[in-house]
Design a protein that fits this description.
Layout (H helix, E strand, L loop, with lengths): L3 E7 L4 H7 L1 H8 L4 E6 L6 H10 L3 H4 L15 H7 L4 E6 H7 L6 H4 L1 E3 L7 E5 L14 H15 L3 E6 L1 H9 L4 H14 L2 H7 L2 E6 L15 H4 E7 L10 E3 L3 H9 L15
Parallel strand pairs: 1-6, 1-7, 2-9, 3-5, 3-6
Antiparallel strand pairs: 2-8, 4-5, 7-8
Length: 277
Protein backbone atom coordinates (compact mmCIF):
# COMPACT_ATOMS: atom_id res chain seq x y z
CA UNK A 1 0.00 0.00 0.00
CA UNK A 2 1.19 3.54 -0.78
CA UNK A 3 -0.60 4.80 2.31
CA UNK A 4 -3.35 3.79 4.76
CA UNK A 5 -6.83 5.31 4.74
CA UNK A 6 -9.94 5.40 6.92
CA UNK A 7 -13.35 6.31 5.46
CA UNK A 8 -15.89 7.65 7.98
CA UNK A 9 -19.49 7.71 6.71
CA UNK A 10 -22.02 9.64 8.83
CA UNK A 11 -25.33 8.56 7.37
CA UNK A 12 -27.93 11.13 6.31
CA UNK A 13 -26.20 14.45 6.93
CA UNK A 14 -26.98 17.26 4.45
CA UNK A 15 -24.45 19.84 3.27
CA UNK A 16 -25.92 22.77 5.17
CA UNK A 17 -25.62 21.04 8.56
CA UNK A 18 -22.06 19.82 8.01
CA UNK A 19 -20.77 23.34 7.48
CA UNK A 20 -22.92 24.93 10.17
CA UNK A 21 -22.68 22.51 13.08
CA UNK A 22 -19.54 20.35 12.71
CA UNK A 23 -17.24 22.82 14.44
CA UNK A 24 -14.38 20.42 15.06
CA UNK A 25 -14.17 19.40 11.42
CA UNK A 26 -14.51 23.01 10.29
CA UNK A 27 -11.69 23.96 12.65
CA UNK A 28 -9.35 21.56 10.83
CA UNK A 29 -10.35 23.25 7.57
CA UNK A 30 -9.71 26.72 8.97
CA UNK A 31 -6.29 25.63 10.23
CA UNK A 32 -5.39 24.40 6.74
CA UNK A 33 -4.97 20.77 7.82
CA UNK A 34 -8.08 19.51 6.02
CA UNK A 35 -9.98 20.33 2.86
CA UNK A 36 -13.72 20.17 2.22
CA UNK A 37 -15.83 19.76 -0.91
CA UNK A 38 -19.49 19.24 -1.70
CA UNK A 39 -20.34 15.78 -3.05
CA UNK A 40 -23.56 14.64 -4.72
CA UNK A 41 -25.04 11.19 -4.21
CA UNK A 42 -26.33 8.76 -6.79
CA UNK A 43 -30.05 8.27 -7.44
CA UNK A 44 -32.04 7.01 -5.74
CA UNK A 45 -30.52 8.80 -2.77
CA UNK A 46 -31.52 5.82 -0.65
CA UNK A 47 -29.13 4.44 1.97
CA UNK A 48 -28.50 0.95 0.59
CA UNK A 49 -28.18 2.24 -2.97
CA UNK A 50 -25.58 4.78 -1.84
CA UNK A 51 -23.63 2.23 0.21
CA UNK A 52 -23.22 -0.01 -2.81
CA UNK A 53 -22.16 2.89 -5.03
CA UNK A 54 -19.70 4.28 -2.48
CA UNK A 55 -17.72 1.05 -2.60
CA UNK A 56 -18.17 -0.09 -6.21
CA UNK A 57 -18.05 3.25 -8.01
CA UNK A 58 -21.01 2.30 -10.21
CA UNK A 59 -24.61 3.64 -10.08
CA UNK A 60 -27.56 1.69 -8.66
CA UNK A 61 -28.81 1.05 -12.18
CA UNK A 62 -25.66 -1.05 -12.70
CA UNK A 63 -25.09 -2.77 -9.34
CA UNK A 64 -28.82 -3.36 -8.86
CA UNK A 65 -29.26 -2.21 -5.25
CA UNK A 66 -32.17 0.11 -5.99
CA UNK A 67 -33.79 0.20 -2.53
CA UNK A 68 -33.24 -0.77 1.10
CA UNK A 69 -35.13 -3.97 0.37
CA UNK A 70 -32.91 -5.24 -2.48
CA UNK A 71 -30.15 -6.90 -0.47
CA UNK A 72 -27.70 -9.32 -2.07
CA UNK A 73 -23.98 -9.88 -2.63
CA UNK A 74 -22.97 -7.25 -5.16
CA UNK A 75 -21.22 -8.60 -8.26
CA UNK A 76 -18.95 -5.68 -9.16
CA UNK A 77 -15.40 -5.22 -7.79
CA UNK A 78 -15.30 -2.96 -4.74
CA UNK A 79 -12.78 -1.34 -2.43
CA UNK A 80 -12.60 -4.33 -0.07
CA UNK A 81 -12.09 -6.88 -2.83
CA UNK A 82 -9.40 -4.88 -4.62
CA UNK A 83 -7.42 -4.01 -1.48
CA UNK A 84 -7.45 -7.65 -0.38
CA UNK A 85 -6.33 -8.81 -3.84
CA UNK A 86 -3.42 -6.37 -3.60
CA UNK A 87 -2.33 -7.95 -0.30
CA UNK A 88 -3.83 -5.36 2.02
CA UNK A 89 -5.93 -5.82 5.14
CA UNK A 90 -9.40 -4.28 5.42
CA UNK A 91 -11.71 -3.47 8.30
CA UNK A 92 -15.40 -2.57 8.57
CA UNK A 93 -17.35 -1.19 11.53
CA UNK A 94 -20.70 -0.68 9.87
CA UNK A 95 -24.33 -1.57 9.47
CA UNK A 96 -24.78 -5.19 8.40
CA UNK A 97 -25.79 -4.14 4.87
CA UNK A 98 -22.09 -3.61 4.09
CA UNK A 99 -21.33 -7.23 5.01
CA UNK A 100 -24.19 -8.42 2.81
CA UNK A 101 -23.10 -6.37 -0.20
CA UNK A 102 -19.37 -7.03 -0.01
CA UNK A 103 -18.81 -10.31 1.85
CA UNK A 104 -21.76 -12.74 1.81
CA UNK A 105 -25.53 -12.91 1.90
CA UNK A 106 -27.74 -13.45 3.74
CA UNK A 107 -26.41 -11.96 6.96
CA UNK A 108 -26.24 -14.54 9.74
CA UNK A 109 -26.43 -12.82 13.13
CA UNK A 110 -24.20 -15.30 14.95
CA UNK A 111 -21.71 -16.00 12.16
CA UNK A 112 -21.42 -12.48 10.77
CA UNK A 113 -21.82 -10.05 13.66
CA UNK A 114 -18.04 -10.22 14.10
CA UNK A 115 -15.43 -12.01 12.03
CA UNK A 116 -11.73 -12.10 11.24
CA UNK A 117 -11.09 -13.71 7.87
CA UNK A 118 -7.57 -13.28 6.43
CA UNK A 119 -8.75 -14.07 2.89
CA UNK A 120 -11.28 -11.24 3.00
CA UNK A 121 -12.62 -9.41 1.14
CA UNK A 122 -13.49 -7.88 4.54
CA UNK A 123 -10.58 -9.01 6.69
CA UNK A 124 -11.94 -7.77 10.01
CA UNK A 125 -15.69 -7.11 10.31
CA UNK A 126 -17.67 -5.72 13.25
CA UNK A 127 -21.34 -5.12 12.46
CA UNK A 128 -24.64 -3.95 13.91
CA UNK A 129 -28.13 -4.50 12.50
CA UNK A 130 -30.50 -1.96 14.12
CA UNK A 131 -33.05 -4.77 14.32
CA UNK A 132 -36.35 -3.37 15.63
CA UNK A 133 -35.66 0.17 14.39
CA UNK A 134 -38.75 2.38 14.39
CA UNK A 135 -39.79 5.99 14.89
CA UNK A 136 -39.80 5.69 18.67
CA UNK A 137 -36.60 3.67 19.09
CA UNK A 138 -33.58 4.28 16.87
CA UNK A 139 -31.74 1.07 17.82
CA UNK A 140 -28.40 2.73 17.05
CA UNK A 141 -25.17 1.94 18.93
CA UNK A 142 -23.18 4.70 20.61
CA UNK A 143 -20.97 6.38 18.05
CA UNK A 144 -18.03 6.64 20.41
CA UNK A 145 -18.09 2.84 20.70
CA UNK A 146 -17.96 2.57 16.91
CA UNK A 147 -15.05 5.03 16.68
CA UNK A 148 -13.21 3.08 19.37
CA UNK A 149 -13.83 -0.22 17.58
CA UNK A 150 -12.40 1.08 14.30
CA UNK A 151 -9.39 2.40 16.21
CA UNK A 152 -8.93 -1.03 17.78
CA UNK A 153 -8.93 -2.68 14.34
CA UNK A 154 -6.35 -0.15 13.15
CA UNK A 155 -4.05 -0.53 16.14
CA UNK A 156 -4.48 -4.24 16.86
CA UNK A 157 -4.69 -5.61 13.33
CA UNK A 158 -2.88 -2.96 11.28
CA UNK A 159 -5.60 -2.59 8.66
CA UNK A 160 -4.62 -0.70 5.52
CA UNK A 161 -8.17 0.41 4.73
CA UNK A 162 -11.05 0.75 7.16
CA UNK A 163 -14.58 2.07 6.95
CA UNK A 164 -16.87 3.21 9.74
CA UNK A 165 -20.56 3.79 9.06
CA UNK A 166 -23.08 5.05 11.59
CA UNK A 167 -26.82 5.67 11.13
CA UNK A 168 -27.34 7.88 14.20
CA UNK A 169 -27.86 11.18 12.40
CA UNK A 170 -29.97 9.63 9.65
CA UNK A 171 -32.20 8.06 12.31
CA UNK A 172 -32.43 11.32 14.21
CA UNK A 173 -33.36 13.08 10.97
CA UNK A 174 -36.15 10.63 10.22
CA UNK A 175 -37.42 11.07 13.76
CA UNK A 176 -37.12 14.82 14.24
CA UNK A 177 -36.14 16.39 10.92
CA UNK A 178 -32.99 18.47 10.37
CA UNK A 179 -34.18 21.84 11.66
CA UNK A 180 -34.79 21.41 15.38
CA UNK A 181 -33.06 21.49 18.75
CA UNK A 182 -32.81 17.70 18.94
CA UNK A 183 -30.80 17.58 15.71
CA UNK A 184 -28.62 20.52 16.77
CA UNK A 185 -27.61 18.56 19.86
CA UNK A 186 -27.10 15.32 17.93
CA UNK A 187 -24.72 17.06 15.52
CA UNK A 188 -22.82 18.66 18.40
CA UNK A 189 -22.47 15.28 20.11
CA UNK A 190 -21.30 13.52 16.94
CA UNK A 191 -18.70 16.19 16.24
CA UNK A 192 -17.42 15.98 19.83
CA UNK A 193 -17.21 12.18 19.83
CA UNK A 194 -15.30 12.15 16.56
CA UNK A 195 -12.89 14.89 17.68
CA UNK A 196 -10.39 12.92 19.82
CA UNK A 197 -10.04 10.10 17.31
CA UNK A 198 -9.00 12.21 14.31
CA UNK A 199 -5.55 13.20 15.64
CA UNK A 200 -4.99 9.63 16.83
CA UNK A 201 -5.69 8.25 13.35
CA UNK A 202 -3.51 10.88 11.70
CA UNK A 203 -0.65 10.21 14.12
CA UNK A 204 -0.91 6.50 13.24
CA UNK A 205 -0.25 7.39 9.59
CA UNK A 206 -3.78 7.20 8.17
CA UNK A 207 -5.29 9.55 5.67
CA UNK A 208 -8.91 10.18 6.67
CA UNK A 209 -12.06 10.99 4.70
CA UNK A 210 -15.18 12.02 6.63
CA UNK A 211 -18.37 12.21 4.60
CA UNK A 212 -21.99 11.02 4.26
CA UNK A 213 -23.93 8.69 1.99
CA UNK A 214 -26.66 11.23 1.17
CA UNK A 215 -28.33 14.37 2.50
CA UNK A 216 -31.75 14.78 4.09
CA UNK A 217 -34.55 17.33 3.99
CA UNK A 218 -35.68 19.50 6.88
CA UNK A 219 -38.64 17.09 7.22
CA UNK A 220 -36.28 14.11 7.42
CA UNK A 221 -36.62 12.57 3.96
CA UNK A 222 -34.21 11.39 1.28
CA UNK A 223 -34.30 9.16 -1.75
CA UNK A 224 -35.26 11.65 -4.43
CA UNK A 225 -33.68 14.09 -6.86
CA UNK A 226 -33.11 17.23 -4.82
CA UNK A 227 -30.03 19.09 -3.59
CA UNK A 228 -31.06 18.69 0.06
CA UNK A 229 -31.38 14.92 -0.35
CA UNK A 230 -28.28 14.40 -2.47
CA UNK A 231 -25.65 16.91 -1.37
CA UNK A 232 -23.28 16.50 1.57
CA UNK A 233 -19.74 17.41 2.62
CA UNK A 234 -16.52 15.48 2.18
CA UNK A 235 -13.59 16.37 4.45
CA UNK A 236 -10.14 15.11 3.51
CA UNK A 237 -7.11 14.81 5.78
CA UNK A 238 -4.07 13.83 3.75
CA UNK A 239 -1.29 14.77 1.35
CA UNK A 240 -3.21 14.33 -1.91
CA UNK A 241 -3.89 17.31 -4.17
CA UNK A 242 -7.55 17.93 -4.95
CA UNK A 243 -9.63 20.26 -7.11
CA UNK A 244 -10.76 23.78 -6.27
CA UNK A 245 -13.16 23.92 -3.36
CA UNK A 246 -16.07 25.03 -5.57
CA UNK A 247 -15.95 21.80 -7.61
CA UNK A 248 -18.95 19.52 -7.08
CA UNK A 249 -17.76 15.94 -6.58
CA UNK A 250 -19.64 12.87 -7.82
CA UNK A 251 -20.17 10.01 -5.36
CA UNK A 252 -18.98 7.58 -8.03
CA UNK A 253 -15.53 9.19 -7.74
CA UNK A 254 -15.10 8.03 -4.15
CA UNK A 255 -14.17 4.37 -4.72
CA UNK A 256 -11.52 4.99 -7.39
CA UNK A 257 -10.13 7.87 -5.32
CA UNK A 258 -9.69 5.63 -2.27
CA UNK A 259 -7.98 2.94 -4.33
CA UNK A 260 -5.69 5.46 -5.99
CA UNK A 261 -4.61 6.85 -2.60
CA UNK A 262 -3.86 3.31 -1.40
CA UNK A 263 -1.90 2.52 -4.55
CA UNK A 264 -4.28 -0.23 -5.63
CA UNK A 265 -5.20 -0.85 -9.26
CA UNK A 266 -8.57 0.66 -10.18
CA UNK A 267 -10.85 -1.90 -11.90
CA UNK A 268 -12.32 -1.08 -15.29
CA UNK A 269 -15.84 -0.97 -13.82
CA UNK A 270 -14.92 2.20 -11.87
CA UNK A 271 -15.08 4.74 -14.68
CA UNK A 272 -15.24 7.98 -12.69
CA UNK A 273 -12.00 9.92 -12.34
CA UNK A 274 -10.33 10.08 -8.91
CA UNK A 275 -10.56 13.56 -7.41
CA UNK A 276 -7.26 13.34 -5.49
CA UNK A 277 -3.80 13.10 -7.08
Amino acid sequence: MNTKLLLIVLDGLPWRNWRKFMGNLEGWVQSGEARVWKMRSVLPSTSASCYASIHTGVPPQVHGVVSNETLFRVAQPDIFSEVTKAGGRTGAVTHSFWSIFFNRAPFDLVRDIEYDEPEGPITHGRFHTMTGYNHKNQMTPSDIDLFATLTMLAERHGIDYGILHTCTLDSMGHRYGHDCGEMDQALFAMDAMLAPFLPRWLKAGYEVIVTADHGQTARGHHGGHDDEMQDFALYYFGRGAGPNEDVLLDQLQLAPTVLSRLGVRIPETMRARPFLD
